[in-house]
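Entry:
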Amino acid sequence: MQLTPGPRPSALRLRLGAAACLLLASAPAARAQTADTTANVFEASALLYGEKGRTNVMEPTAKITHLFGNGQALSAQLGLDLMTGASPTGAIVATQMQTVTSASGGSSTTSTSQLPTAKFSDLRGVLDLGWQSPIGRYLRNDAGGHFSREKDYQSLGWSEQLSLDLMQRRTTLSVGAGANRDGVFPKGGTPLGLSPTRIIVSYDTQPKDVAFGTVGLSQILTRRWMLALDGSRTRETGYLTEPYKIVSLVSPDSAVAVGQVTEKRPSERWRNSVTGSSVYHFEENVLYMSYRYYWDDWSVRSHTVDARYRYELGNQTFLQPHVRLYTQTQASFFTFGLPNGAPLPTYASADQRLGPLHSFTLGATYGVHLPNHPGELTVRAEWIHQWGSGPTINGPPVSGGEDDSGPQQVSLFPALDIGTLVVGYTLGF
């Protein structure tokens, strides 16, 4: 939902529009300018992301938007992602030392009862362009372009959305589409799927194509309450396998990893999602709530509940607590390990992102207009607890004298704590 220029909307309506745009990922950014104003907006942010014992990300971004006097807007955003740390290889937790394939095509050794990971580092550059323009009085167009590149992946895409205002602008219908032309070029070449050794089948770039469509409906029910419903459908084709992930071969008798094969995924995936959201404006504060249901033809189903409450502290400052719950089922070909000696399936992956995954997010955003300065500073901190549903194995014995409890139970899907910190600055001029 985006409230558009035309007759000057009320301050409440503008804040509802901005709130909805922050909440709905499919909606374009809100504009508060009217037909007779011209302005520029500069936005900068820095993200720090850290997984305990795993991946760390630092992501600075800068965006500038020029708001034309006729309701048009042009934006450009640059971003860098610096990623370091370690990523799970897909190998099973073992009760003995094991050597697994690393992300560089080499090997790494993991100690007893530890989730096997491989070290990596990467730098990703991103450029996003956006163009918004009215078409007549009630129709508007939002177009965008995207380019990003890292060491072994490149993405080039576009998007387009048309929005129509009805019922004195209380109802908005939107429809959009877009496509990405991506390329995957794994370091060391593309490996053969489900191979016990890293057999390279190609050194060429592997294509990955993404096409999507979206539809949306938003309705202002009262001067304080707005509801929205959005749906999307996406088709991915081409090389969808993670080239560095592996799957352990497990002894049927002892559940011990005795070998490994490279993972293999289908070459097509249909994704679907439906999101319902609500924005309610009290006298000063705003409550945002949303629910998203996702399903695809890989048998992944997920539910996401998100709630934010913006509390105005006065003197142009606010505090916005945030709670998010997420749960998903596993893909049809997800496995913690394959029985050694049994016939291999058509597809298999031990990537935890395709497993029975759950997470809980708790955080808050603090915003303040700097004294004697037109800009706004925001700081957002969040803690994410992520865990999976999976079996356990007997680990090394736990010694403790009289309290000796014998072998410890080691989860094949250990919990993970993640912390994020985002510092943002917005300036209109």
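The chain has one helix and 25 strands.
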